[in-house]
Amino acid sequence: MPMTIEKWKTVVRSAPQELLRMLQHFQSPDYILSTMTDTHFDEWTLASRRECLVLCLDRMITAATTEEIKLWLHGWKQEFKNPEKAGLDPYNIYARAFWGPIKTKGYAQSELLKLCRESERQKLARIVLITHIYGAELKTLPGQTGPLLTT
User: Fold this and answer.
1) CA angle 130, 139, 34 (to 5 degrees)
2) Domain coordinates of the chain in residue numbers?
3) Residue 42: which residues within 8 A CB-CB, separation 6 or more?
4) What span, in angstroms and rounded, lies between the C-alpha atoms of 139 and 131?
5) Residue in 124, 9, 134 with CA at minimum distance from that of residue 55
6) Nearest to 76 by CA among 62, 47, 97
7) Which residues of 50-89 are buried (b: 16+ CB within 10 A; e: fewer)?
8) Does the pLDDT of residue 150 top 70, yes or no?
9) pTM (predicted TM-score)
10) CA atoms within 13 A on the CB side of 50
11) What is the mean pLDDT of residues 30-53?
12) What pLDDT is stored for residue 69 in this prediction?
């Protein structure tokens, strides 16, 4: 099932969820994944990585101690959730105006939020793919009693 880089780009853009479902049932998903590049993984998981970021923002809004912080976080949540509506590049979830202040606040002590950083995008992309493709197997790990990744 080897394909060119361009064909993978087309598949990742046009049918990302279908590809995930197919890989869940494929006997050797690592064979297919090994033919893809980091760029494919970035594009393929962008929506899921954006969802992770929005989830983190929801939790931060709930925990915020001032109305000013809540409004600031809510504004960023809306921009990340609907980048086209906010006039932003839909592929950029790494706005310095957001990440600078978040870094100074210690990423709200959230490991998931730390994974949403640009420097960790490859790691988060792989985690997203692994949890989708191998989710059933991961749930059956011996001694597993709670979620595999918590914030």
Assistant:
1) 20
2) 5-139
3) 121, 122, 125
4) 10
5) 124
6) 97
7) bebbbbbbebbbeebeeeeeeebbeebbebbeebeeeeee
8) no
9) 0.81
10) 20
11) 89
12) 96
